[in-house]
Specification:
Blueprint (H helix, E strand, L loop, with lengths): L7 H13 L5 E4 L5 E4 L1 H7 L4 H7 L13 H10 L3 E9 L2 E13 L7 E9 L1 H23 L3 E5 L5 E4 L1 H6 L4 H5 L4 H10 L9 H14 L4 E6 L5 E8 L5 E7 L1 H22 L6 E3 L5 E4 L1 H4 L1
Antiparallel strand pairs: 1-2, 1-5, 3-4, 4-5, 6-7, 6-10, 8-9, 9-10, 11-12
């Protein structure tokens, strides 16, 4: 703020006006952690009639349990000489608010031996509601995924397993004790490799490192195939998870591929037989278009 050239009294009035019109509580503590300054919003949240009462009685803003929301935080900031932040629940006018509390230490009066702290209380109730609603929707979606036959799992931003459904455990032959301990993605790869359920690769360490790097590279759904040593073929889908990490879906398409292969083989055999007939053969499809003719017809 730029203050025009005037007497000290005018400057103090302007500064006080500035502080009092900040729309959230702010306060100042001395080196004994006593409140020595605050704004009008602080009085509202502390339930005080005036700033004089705050300073005289050293009134603190309390959380839902009646404890000071910031005194211990200020002590930690004072001892470590580092800014501190915490969340607290505050009841104001009968309404529960979720707040972020800040305590920032500084050298008062430019003295290295005198550390004061400045504090602030910011309402994040709307953001907290949005986060809780998001978690509810995500949990509901995960519950639905848990009932599906397709194997699903979520590995979070720290590569830890945060969700899996029974189909995932069955597919990879992993026991619940191992999965409930939230193994990391590398440990998961090691476990299924020991069971020979991982595609054979010439350099496993390079493969595992590459798989981990995908967590920071995948920004849209990606599909690929996993050909396992036991003859199974899995279609794998990896997609970014809203809370960080990746969601994995595995579908066993071995039977589908086998059926497709058998069908193609049958068609190939039939075509070979028709090619070797002396009779001219034409085959028209359901749309009336020519689908096949043999060399005898050409001749």
């Amino acid at each position: 703020m730029c203050i025009r050239d005037s007497n000290v009294s005018d400057q103090l009035v302007q500064l006080q006006d500035l502080i009092d019109n900040i729309p959230f509580p702010v306060w100042l503590r001395d080196d004994s952690l006593k409140i020595i300054g605050c704004n009008k919003k602080y009085c509202e949240f502390a339930g005080a009639r005036s700033k004089d009462q705050i300073l005289r009685e050293n009134l603190e803003i309390s959380n839902a349990n009646g404890e000071s929301i910031s005194r211990e935080l200020a002590r930690s900031a004072y001892v470590t000489n580092r800014p501190k932040k915490a969340s607290a629940s505050v009841v104001k006018d009968g309404e529960r608010l979720v707040m972020n509390v800040f305590e920032t230490p500084f050298h008062a009066e430019e003295s290295l031996d005198k550390i004061y702290t400045s504090g602030a209380l910011v309402d994040i109730s709307e953001l907290d509601d949005l986060k809780r609603n998001l978690r509810r929707h995500q949990n509901a979606q995960l519950e639905i995924l848990g009932t599906l036959g397709t194997a699903f799992a979520v590995f979070d931003q720290n590569l830890k397993l945060s969700f899996y459904n029974p189909s995932f455990a069955d597919l990879w032959q992993l026991d619940n004790e191992f999965l409930e301990n939230q193994p990391g993605y590398p440990a998961f790869l090691d476990a299924i490799r020991e069971k020979r359920l991982l595609p054979e690769v010439p350099d496993y360490l390079m493969f595992k490192n590459g798989e981990q790097k995908e967590f920071s590279k995948i920004i849209e759904p990606q599909k690929d195939m996993l050909h396992l040593p036991d003859g199974k073929t899995l279609r794998r889908l990896r997609a970014p998870y809203p809370m960080g990490g990746l969601i994995f879906a595995y579908e066993d398409i071995s039977d589908k591929l086998a059926a497709t292969s058998a069908y193609n083989s049958l068609l190939s055999v039939q075509q070979e037989m028709l090619e070797n007939l002396f009779d001219a053969v034409l085959i028209f499809g359901t749309q009336g278009r020519l689908n096949f003719y043999n060399q005898s017809y050409v001749k």
